[in-house]
């Protein structure tokens, strides 16, 4: 599907804020208001829902603090990056290599419920579209977990890096 990644993310944050994160603060960091991409809308929706709901569920560290969730978009002619960070409990070092395995849960989750399936779904949603997902190091502001999903920029847009309408190409050649 051809979609504007920036408004897609904005809408998804708005929906998840209402359903799960009304006590959380959300920020969207983006170089501009428009990034036209060709991605499967359903897969992207599942991917973002799982990353953002994790960020909500595992933040903040203490109940009397506020959970912060940041979505950061960046892109160039070849790649699109979507980074989701939070200020929550973070991922213990010994868990980092297993985090994308189905049913794996780290040992610092305490009573926070989960089945350990979300991130394996995120990985599949990324890979099915030629993308990757990696765990990234915490920052001072977002000292919890951070994930970056990277997609290759669609061929149709590589011909047209200025984000204009896609160039029509013959089908089946
Ligand atoms: P569910 O299947 O409901 O998503 P889950 O959240 O436990 O359950 P995953 O989303 O696959 O499963 O995440 C796997 C594990 O990775 C979690 O159990 C948790 O230990 C860790 N994890 C994932 N995201 C975060 C996060 N934002 N902060 C801290 N730990 C996280
Ligand atoms: Mg999850």
What this model shows, in words?
This protein has 173 residues and is an alpha+beta fold. The protein has 4 helices and 7 strands, in the order βαββαββαββα. Helix content is 27%, strand content 22%. The strands form 2 sheets. Strands 2-4-5-7-6 form a 5-stranded mixed β-sheet, with helices on one face. It has a two-stranded antiparallel sheet with strand order 1-3. The two termini are 20 Å apart. 28% of the residues are buried. Bound molecules: adenosine-5'-triphosphate and magnesium ion. The site of adenosine-5'-triphosphate has 23 residues, from helix 2 and helix 3. The site of adenosine-5'-triphosphate (ATP) has 23 residues, from helix 2 and helix 3.
CA-based gyration radius = 17 Å
The percentage helix is 25-40%
Query: What characterizes the major β-sheet?
Result: 5 strands, mixed
Bound molecules: adenosine-5'-triphosphate, magnesium ion
Mean pLDDT: 91
- Biggest β-sheet: strands ordered side by side in the sheet: 2-4-5-7-6
Strand content: 15-25%
Protein name: histidine kinase
GO molecular function, one term: phosphorelay sensor kinase activity
Keywords: Kinase, Phosphoprotein, Transferase, Two-component regulatory system
Domain Histidine kinase: 1-155
Concise synopsis of the structure shown:
Residues 1-155 form the Histidine kinase domain. The chain has helices at 5-19, 41-57, 118-127, 155-158; strands spanning 2-4, 25-29, 36-38, 68-75, 79-86, 132-135, 146-152.
């Amino acid at each position: 599907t051809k979609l504007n990644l920036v408004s897609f993310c904005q809408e998804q944050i708005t929906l998840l804020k209402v359903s799960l994160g009304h006590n959380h603060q959300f920020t969207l960091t983006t170089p501009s208001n428009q990034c036209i991409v060709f991605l499967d809308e359903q897969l992207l929706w599942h991917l973002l829902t799982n990353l953002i709901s994790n960020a909500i569920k595992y933040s903040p560290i203490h109940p009397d603090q506020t959970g912060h969730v940041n979505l950061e978009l960046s892109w160039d002619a070849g790649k699109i990056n979507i980074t989701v960070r939070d200020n929550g409990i973070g991922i213990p070092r010994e868990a980092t290599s297993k985090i994308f395995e189905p049913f794996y849960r780290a040992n610092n989750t305490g009573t926070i419920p989960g089945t350990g399936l979300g991130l394996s779904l995120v990985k599949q949603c990324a890979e099915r579209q030629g993308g990757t997902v990696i765990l990234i190091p915490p920052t001072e502001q977002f000292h919890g977990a951070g994930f970056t999903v990277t997609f290759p920029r669609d061929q149709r847009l590589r011909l047209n890096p200025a984000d204009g309408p896609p160039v029509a190409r013959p089908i089946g050649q």
